What does this fold into?
Amino acid sequence: MHEVSLMQDTVIIATKQARDAGAQRIHRIMMRVGALSGAVPETLEFAFDIVAKGTMAEGAALDIERVPIRCYCAACAQEFEPADFVCECTRCGQPSTDIRRGRELQVTSLEVS
Amino acid sequence: MCKDCGCGLPGDVAIDGVPAGAPQHDHSHGHSHDHGHSHDHDHQHPHDHAHEHGHPHEHTHDHPHPEDHTAHRTLSLERGILEKNDRLAERNRGYFLAKNLYVLNILASPGAGKTAFIERTAADLGTRVRLGVIVGDLATENDAVRLRGRGIPAIQITTGSVCHLDAEMVSRAMERLDLNALDVLIIENVGNLVCPAVYDLGETARVVLLSVTEGEDKPLKYPVMFQSAQVVVVNKTDIAAAVGFDREAALRNIRRVAPNATILEVSARTGDGMQRWYDLLASRLPR
It folds into this structure.
């Protein structure tokens, strides 16, 4: 349940960027959240409403792009999306530690005025 | 109120009982704007752009406030939410390197035996390896007191209600330890298999403990945590039979999630299996 901390940091990053750009309000925050990021999108949304209160992001929409896990198998020279959180190659079954996507936890853009 | 779960628990982060939540920027706002705006321009504006836009200065456009017609625009950021913590963690890491200090981040569920594992390690290594501990819990100084009772320098971070340690808490706590007198710094994280996984503290290696009472499928349930481990320690092997622990299944699940991690099976209580851990530690320590 560290999503409140994460959203607090998100709002801090967003309001600073918006202010630096001369904006008065944030209408939308777009995020990218990987399946292996350790954060739950629904919980982030819930936390956002709480932490945005009283900031220029209050009432803003939160768009979360969910990023599935993509691993790479060197033996098969293929990228694959594992069925669960375990990166076993869908072709040869060997475990992989080369995780290419799925760890994202980012603010990608803001809609401001 | 709790920053993380809203549970209403009191208190902020404290290090050995001293609140650490003091504001970091101490600027005292003492400038007293005395420059008295006395430029006497009598409206002879020298800006020479010759107002050539078609309408002859009878401003009749009727939008009264400028903010009414500022359109929404998009700012591109691409910023990592944890970048501040990551930056502080790198600072810690550089500091540890400069001190020639090997730093372990020990993670597990509550009750997996983290403190017992550290106590046993300190007792067995004795004076051969100088250990210090930073221990995180939501409340109480019990663990630090327990470790100090065994002669181990220990600093307690009470997080109030925050479910993980972060790099800043560690950097504040380590100021209270004489790092020059240590070979190994062990950071015992808050008992939790979720949140601490994504907070880099600047450690050299991560050790995740799993006790035999927790169930063999724990690595599959908490993959983010187990994937981040360099070492996975299966603890409480002395009671494995009593709790019907399926060793093969547990080891298989650990290997599936963390194929590169070193797996150790120990009983911190009896000391069984601990020698492999000491050998591993010795092989990793800077000379």
Remarks:
- The first strand of chain B starts at residue 14 and ends at 15.
- Chain B touches chain A through 36 residues (CB under 8 Å).
